[in-house]
Write a structure and sequence with these properties.
mainly beta; twelve-stranded parallel β-sheet
Length: 438
């Protein structure tokens, strides 16, 4: 090729080798009407020159004492331009594929991410397929594309740390989903998927780099892994969320009611089949009599009870808990426990705070007694694991999930923010209000 290379930048500055004859004594080299920025005669057949600025296709001429001759044509290429698709961000390890679209990309010789060069394929003058190189640290880097027409810059790519999930708040909810939770962590921007035990969230919104708000899908009873995928990678928080049953009232032998009790949540019996007193009682939910749902509920009840009593106690308790303020923890009593007056459970601002009460005998609450939840405490996170029976006093105001081995008696006018679930015995209601806390 007499002009090599025969393409270059409109801004000039490209080194070009001319091949021909009779170059000795050259007095001028021109690109179109413009003189070369500089030239050197290497031999009678070779001359090196630096292009001036220019535009389009121009003739290259050499002038000697013997005259002027056209050696060939040089093509001035416009400077390239490009943008990145999809979003310009990805993992530290690189390896992901990006599409660069733009103009003047056909003669691309190098693609750089900061100081790292990338592998690429020229698809057309308007497109490159680029494999992102790895980076040493997270953060934005400048991306440049070098062609014979010049260097395109002004585009930024962001290397992302892998995401991490710290906590899900609230960390439990109903098996039928539909509730909103807040996922807190790090590097959560550019999230592309949120799943609960592999099921995609109904919807999610990235509130910030440290927060995602997600609507939980339906799931199976028990703990579930929560996974977040971003352009920086995927993280899984094992057992970060727990699917809870739909029962507000569940008996093993029978469920009986007197008066206009109101149950919000499902009501069930298993393995027994006797439910009496609805009406006059009202169930804002589904009634399950010795069916598969009730059997599943009993299995979950037994598993939850066993898990609760298996925990290592933090503190021993005895006698009457009225008048106490208790912080989150596992509390154990080998004997019966009572509540007279008010028992206060203080979450200290942690909405996932949990209390487990392991009671080796019975639980009895006095007339007009109260379990008060403060500073973010929730009834769903309070478990009363009772080895025998529970009796909730007249006009008392109780909170938590009552899991009893035998009978639960909710006396006249009591209100329960929680569940009353009997494994082997009966649940007895009398003009009460039971509300499942999720």
């Amino acid at each position: 090729m007499p002009v090599a290379p025969n393409q270059g930048s409109t801004g000039g500055g490209d080194a070009v080798t001319l091949t021909g004859s009779h170059f000795t004594g050259t007095t001028a080299v021109r690109y179109g009407s413009r003189p070369a920025t500089s030239f050197v005669v290497v031999s009678d057949t070779t001359s090196n020159s630096i292009t001036p600025s220019g535009h389009g296709a121009v003739p290259v001429s050499v002038t000697t004492a013997g005259g002027t001759g056209i050696i060939g044509t040089f093509f001035y290429l416009p400077p390239p331009s490009f943008r990145i698709e999809p979003p310009p961000a990805g993992p530290l390890g690189g390896g992901n594929t990006l599409i660069f679209t733009g103009l003047g990309l056909f003669t691309t010789s190098e693609v750089s991410f900061g100081t790292e060069t990338a592998a690429f394929t020229v698809d057309s003058d308007g497109q490159l397929t680029v494999t992102v190189p790895a980076a040493a640290s997270a953060g934005p880097v400048a991306v440049t594309v070098t062609t014979r027409g010049g260097v395109a810059s002004g585009v930024t790519y962001t290397y992302l740390d892998p995401p991490a999930v710290t906590v899900v708040t609230l960390d439990s909810g109903p098996v039928d989903g539909g509730n909103l939770v807040v996922i807190t962590g790090t590097a959560l921007s550019y999230a592309t998927a949120v799943t609960f035990d592999g099921a995609p969230a109904i919807s999610f919104r990235v509130a910030s780099d440290t927060e995602i708000d997600a609507v939980v899908p339906a799931g199976a009873l028990g703990p579930a892994d929560v996974s977040v995928t971003t352009l920086g990678g995927t993280t899984t928080a094992t057992d970060a969320y727990t699917y809870l049953g739909l029962f507000a009232v569940l008996g093993g032998a029978s469920v009986t009611n007197t008066g206009p009790s109101i149950v919000t949540g499902d009501l069930g019996i298993s393995p027994g089949a006797s439910i009496d007193g609805f009406p006059p009682g009202t169930v804002n939910g589904t009634v399950h009599i010795a069916d598969a749902a009730a059997a599943d509920g009993q299995a979950d009840l037994v598993a939850t009870y066993n898990a609760a009593v298996a925990q290592t106690p933090d503190t021993g308790i005895a006698g009457d808990l009225g008048g106490l303020t208790l912080l989150p923890g596992v509390y154990n009593s080998a004997a019966a426990i009572g509540i007279t007056g008010t028992l206060t459970l203080d979450a200290q601002g942690d909405r996932n705070a949990e209390w487990v009460f392991q009671i080796g005998s019975a639980l009895t609450t006095a007339t007009a007694s109260n379990v008060l939840l403060i500073n973010g405490a929730t009834a769903r996170n309070v478990i009363w694991a009772i080895a025998t029976s529970a009796t909730l006093g007249t006009d008392s105001d109780f909170a938590g999930r009552v899991l009893a081995q035998t009978t639960i008696t909710v006396t006249t006018g009591a209100t329960v923010d929680g569940q009353v679930l009997a494994i082997d015995g009966s649940v007895i209601l009398d003009t009460d209000t039971i509300t499942r806390p999720w």
